[in-house]
Amino acid sequence: MTKASWRRWRQLWPRWVTWVTMFWAAVYAGFGLACALSGTSLLSLGGHQASSALGWAVAAGGALAALVCGVAAWCGLRPMLRALLWVLCGLAGVAAFGLLMDMLTLMFGQAVDSWASAANHALAAAGMFLLAATARSDHRPSKVAVGQAHSASSRSVQLAACVGTVAFLPYAMMKLVWASGGTFAGVSGREMRVISERNGASGIWLTLESWGLDATALLAALGVFLLWGLVRPWGQIFPRWTLFLRGRRVPRWLPLTPALIGAATLAPYGVLGVGYLTLAAAGVVTIPRGDFHSSGDALLVSWIGLAAFAAYGIALVIAARSYWLRTTTPVHGAAE
């Protein structure tokens, strides 16, 4: 695509994004209606299917989004319509919760708990971005200050990134102990491999474990790489890349897309999980022991995992917001 055609395409942005969002809304409403009429559940809790009533809510939300986009396309984006779009964007974000877990389960477990639920998460995530884009469709993209996109974030944001990084260390060490055949929380590496096979782990997962590596520990490392890519210029993270990146910019959607998906999943999952573990530690609720030999072992492992998810998820929210502001600040606007 030439610069001239790209410029013309960007000038048509307010027009085409509204119609694309309206098409998505119609598809989403039809998907919800089909699930409701067929009795297909869109909510899967640990493999247990809940009521199919959520399909009616999805159908209603999609129909309302289509109506709002249609009115906006014909009458312009009024303040009331913009407010409705942001409300629907928030609801779509809630409906997309679990998309990251679906992707990981599909990647390493070869299947998901519910394909209908996974499809709902994916459609809702797409709708979240489209609804946000439509709500901002009358805002022309502003120029980015020279050097601003490649500048480092503030010290407070980098401190949050440090906390998110350090929080993953106990989690990664625990996983690597099991992958190397060691014992942690009363469970040996051999037992953990049997559990993985019983739960339908993929060949990739089992192969990595046979090499003494854990797939989730590797994903944690990628997550830390993404986190620091949001707060530090890429050339400073990898000096050898400086020559390659000179004169080029990483497209802002490339790090922001996984960052937003990860933040929307890990932050609430970790924070709510830590709250549940606090109640379990206080004896208010009982945590099931699952594949562990005692509830105490299960509680220990859960603390390590959920505390890491909570700290990293919050750090990812802060870093993504910082990156968003640094790459959209007008030339004469204030920095982060």
TrEMBL record:
UniProt keywords, alphabetically: Membrane, Transmembrane, Transmembrane helix
Instruction: Tell me where the transmembrane regions lie.
Output: 12-34, 54-77, 84-109, 115-135, 156-174, 215-235, 256-279, 299-320
Give the superkingdom in one word.
Bacteria
| Protein name (database record) | Uncharacterized protein
For this protein's source organism, the top of the classification is:
Bacteria, Bacillati, Actinomycetota, Actinomycetes, Micromonosporales
